[in-house]
Amino acid sequence: MVATTIHLMRHGEVHNPQGVLYGRLDGYHLSERGREMAERVAAHLTGRLDGPRRDVTALFASPLTRAQETVAPIAEALGLPVTTDERLLEAENKFQGLTFGVGDGSLRHPRHWPLLVNPFRPSWGEPYRQQAGRMLAVVERARDAARGHEAVLVSHQLPIWVTRLALEDRRLWHDPRRRQCSLASLTSLTYEDDRLVRIGYTEPAADLLPGASAVAGA
Hints:
This protein is of the alpha/beta class. The protein is built from five helices and six strands, in the order E-H-E-H-E-H-E-H-E-E-H.
């Protein structure tokens, strides 16, 4: 059997002092900590951090700035080109460009309330099944490109999470607070031939996550 692993990577921390839901808006750059997260994953994949070098032979990334800046140090460390694929984009969201919340956020305005009528689809943005479908199409592309090896796909939290839910045959609507998909994390899909045999999850930059130092010192 031929084993192939596809790593779905969430981008690093973004500089977003206004707390805007940036969605598909481009031009949002990684913060200094976000760049450090990307470097950390590069070290993890090349074996400079915590183990053997991973057998990564293909890199794909969302076209958004934050994803491109995340994949850049990985590409440099591995000496690989990056294929940009729009199917790795963030989910469409009608709250894009707004702050999201009840206090000073967009939810305090009644004109936005109709967007919340169906959380199962969801009514405020791209359907969950559509997100999972386009992501899985790139997974298949990456499997063909890296068959017998590994590939990294840099994308965004929600598309990665609903893809995992779909592969685990779980319902796609969910509580966003319960997503296991932290910044710069790797959700790893391992295939034997064409059969998915394992889904793994790692956080190479766990100590860099917001609040991590406070938890460590508690």
